[in-house]
Amino acid sequence: MRLLLISDTHARPLPEQVWAEVAAADVVVHAGDWVKLGLLDELTARSKRLIGVYGNNDGADLRARLPEIARADLDGVRLAVIHETGSKQGREQRCDAQFPDTDVLVFGHSHIPWDTTTPNGLRLLNPGSPTDRRRQPHCTYQTARVENGALTDVELHQLPPRG
What we know:
- The protein has helices spanning 16-24, 37-46, 60-63, 91-98; strands at residues 2-6, 27-30, 50-52, 69-74, 77-82, 104-106, 114-117, 123-126, 140-147, 150-158.
- By secondary structure, the protein is an alpha/beta fold.
- It has one domain (2-158): 4-Layer Sandwich (Purple Acid Phosphatase, chain A, domain 2).
- A five-stranded mixed β-sheet has the order 3-2-1-9-10, with helices on one face. It has a five-stranded mixed β-sheet with strand order 4-5-6-8-7, with no helix packed on it.
- A hairpin with a 2-residue loop joins β4 and β5.
- The longest helix has 10 residues, at 37-46.
- Its cofactor is a divalent metal cation.
- Belongs to the metallophosphoesterase superfamily. YfcE family.
- GO terms for molecular function: hydrolase activity; metal ion binding.
- Keywords: Metal-binding.
Protein backbone atom coordinates (compact mmCIF):
# COMPACT_ATOMS: atom_id res chain seq x y z
CA MET A 1 0.00 0.00 0.00
CA ARG A 2 1.47 3.33 -1.09
CA LEU A 3 0.90 6.44 1.07
CA LEU A 4 1.20 10.12 0.27
CA LEU A 5 1.53 12.45 3.27
CA ILE A 6 0.87 16.20 2.92
CA SER A 7 -0.12 19.06 5.20
CA ASP A 8 -0.48 22.83 5.40
CA THR A 9 -1.49 23.46 1.80
CA HIS A 10 -3.10 26.81 2.78
CA ALA A 11 -5.42 27.11 -0.25
CA ARG A 12 -2.51 27.13 -2.67
CA PRO A 13 -2.54 24.94 -5.81
CA LEU A 14 -0.73 21.63 -5.48
CA PRO A 15 2.29 21.22 -7.77
CA GLU A 16 1.90 18.72 -10.63
CA GLN A 17 4.49 16.44 -8.99
CA VAL A 18 2.19 16.10 -5.96
CA TRP A 19 -0.85 15.41 -8.18
CA ALA A 20 1.16 12.61 -9.79
CA GLU A 21 1.80 11.21 -6.30
CA VAL A 22 -1.95 11.46 -5.55
CA ALA A 23 -2.64 9.32 -8.63
CA ALA A 24 -0.04 6.74 -7.58
CA ALA A 25 -1.10 6.56 -3.91
CA ASP A 26 -3.50 4.06 -2.39
CA VAL A 27 -4.05 6.44 0.53
CA VAL A 28 -3.57 10.21 0.68
CA VAL A 29 -3.18 11.70 4.16
CA HIS A 30 -3.65 15.46 4.72
CA ALA A 31 -2.79 16.73 8.21
CA GLY A 32 -4.79 19.96 8.11
CA ASP A 33 -4.69 23.65 7.23
CA TRP A 34 -6.50 23.31 3.93
CA VAL A 35 -7.99 26.84 4.40
CA LYS A 36 -10.56 26.41 1.56
CA LEU A 37 -12.90 23.57 0.62
CA GLY A 38 -11.74 23.36 -3.00
CA LEU A 39 -8.72 21.15 -2.35
CA LEU A 40 -10.71 18.84 -0.08
CA ASP A 41 -13.25 18.33 -2.86
CA GLU A 42 -10.55 17.83 -5.49
CA LEU A 43 -8.52 15.39 -3.38
CA THR A 44 -11.70 13.49 -2.49
CA ALA A 45 -12.46 13.11 -6.20
CA ARG A 46 -8.92 12.23 -7.29
CA SER A 47 -7.75 10.01 -4.40
CA LYS A 48 -8.39 6.30 -4.06
CA ARG A 49 -8.75 6.95 -0.32
CA LEU A 50 -8.36 10.22 1.58
CA ILE A 51 -7.75 10.58 5.31
CA GLY A 52 -7.74 14.16 6.52
CA VAL A 53 -8.19 16.41 9.54
CA TYR A 54 -8.82 20.09 10.03
CA GLY A 55 -6.14 22.50 11.18
CA ASN A 56 -6.08 25.71 13.17
CA ASN A 57 -6.55 27.84 10.02
CA ASP A 58 -9.58 25.87 8.81
CA GLY A 59 -13.03 27.41 9.20
CA ALA A 60 -16.42 25.98 10.06
CA ASP A 61 -17.00 24.61 6.54
CA LEU A 62 -13.93 22.35 6.74
CA ARG A 63 -14.52 21.50 10.41
CA ALA A 64 -18.01 20.29 9.46
CA ARG A 65 -16.50 17.73 7.08
CA LEU A 66 -13.25 16.75 8.81
CA PRO A 67 -12.39 15.49 12.29
CA GLU A 68 -9.79 16.95 14.62
CA ILE A 69 -8.19 13.50 14.87
CA ALA A 70 -8.56 10.75 12.26
CA ARG A 71 -7.71 7.10 12.87
CA ALA A 72 -7.43 4.22 10.44
CA ASP A 73 -6.09 0.69 10.31
CA LEU A 74 -4.00 0.38 7.17
CA ASP A 75 -3.37 -3.33 6.72
CA GLY A 76 -2.37 -3.70 10.36
CA VAL A 77 -0.66 -0.32 10.80
CA ARG A 78 -2.61 1.79 13.29
CA LEU A 79 -2.52 5.32 11.88
CA ALA A 80 -3.63 8.55 13.55
CA VAL A 81 -3.62 12.03 12.03
CA ILE A 82 -3.78 15.35 13.91
CA HIS A 83 -2.82 18.85 12.86
CA GLU A 84 -0.92 20.09 15.88
CA THR A 85 1.18 18.30 18.51
CA GLY A 86 2.61 21.34 20.31
CA SER A 87 6.21 22.36 20.69
CA LYS A 88 9.03 20.03 19.66
CA GLN A 89 10.24 19.95 23.27
CA GLY A 90 8.50 16.99 24.88
CA ARG A 91 6.66 16.01 21.68
CA GLU A 92 7.60 12.33 21.89
CA GLN A 93 6.37 11.99 25.48
CA ARG A 94 3.12 13.90 24.80
CA CYS A 95 2.36 11.83 21.73
CA ASP A 96 3.15 8.55 23.51
CA ALA A 97 0.64 9.55 26.22
CA GLN A 98 -2.06 10.80 23.81
CA PHE A 99 -1.74 8.00 21.21
CA PRO A 100 -0.90 4.81 23.14
CA ASP A 101 -2.62 2.47 20.65
CA THR A 102 -1.09 4.00 17.53
CA ASP A 103 1.83 2.91 15.36
CA VAL A 104 2.16 6.03 13.18
CA LEU A 105 1.08 9.61 13.90
CA VAL A 106 1.03 12.08 11.01
CA PHE A 107 0.90 15.75 11.99
CA GLY A 108 1.46 19.18 10.47
CA HIS A 109 1.25 22.80 11.62
CA SER A 110 4.96 23.68 11.81
CA HIS A 111 5.75 23.26 8.08
CA ILE A 112 8.92 21.56 9.33
CA PRO A 113 9.51 17.98 8.14
CA TRP A 114 9.82 15.53 11.01
CA ASP A 115 10.54 11.81 11.27
CA THR A 116 11.26 10.33 14.68
CA THR A 117 10.27 7.35 16.76
CA THR A 118 9.18 7.81 20.37
CA PRO A 119 10.47 5.74 23.31
CA ASN A 120 7.27 3.63 23.08
CA GLY A 121 7.81 2.99 19.35
CA LEU A 122 5.33 5.51 17.90
CA ARG A 123 6.54 6.83 14.53
CA LEU A 124 5.99 10.60 14.24
CA LEU A 125 5.84 12.03 10.73
CA ASN A 126 5.36 15.60 9.57
CA PRO A 127 5.56 15.98 5.78
CA GLY A 128 6.14 19.73 5.89
CA SER A 129 4.16 21.61 3.23
CA PRO A 130 4.11 21.10 -0.55
CA THR A 131 2.95 24.70 -1.10
CA ASP A 132 4.26 26.92 1.73
CA ARG A 133 7.85 26.32 2.78
CA ARG A 134 7.89 29.17 5.33
CA ARG A 135 11.45 29.22 6.70
CA GLN A 136 12.37 25.83 5.26
CA PRO A 137 14.68 25.61 2.23
CA HIS A 138 12.11 23.63 0.19
CA CYS A 139 8.45 22.75 -0.03
CA THR A 140 8.13 19.08 0.90
CA TYR A 141 5.90 16.02 1.18
CA GLN A 142 6.45 12.42 2.26
CA THR A 143 5.70 9.03 0.77
CA ALA A 144 5.71 5.67 2.53
CA ARG A 145 4.55 2.10 2.11
CA VAL A 146 2.64 -0.31 4.29
CA GLU A 147 3.91 -3.86 3.80
CA ASN A 148 3.18 -6.91 5.94
CA GLY A 149 1.70 -4.81 8.74
CA ALA A 150 4.65 -2.41 8.93
CA LEU A 151 5.43 1.09 7.70
CA THR A 152 8.37 1.04 5.28
CA ASP A 153 10.16 3.22 2.74
CA VAL A 154 9.38 6.57 4.39
CA GLU A 155 10.86 9.22 2.12
CA LEU A 156 10.90 13.02 2.28
CA HIS A 157 10.59 14.67 -1.14
CA GLN A 158 11.74 18.21 -1.89
CA LEU A 159 9.91 20.19 -4.54
CA PRO A 160 11.72 22.51 -6.93
CA PRO A 161 11.26 26.23 -6.32
CA ARG A 162 8.18 27.72 -7.94
CA GLY A 163 8.93 29.94 -10.87
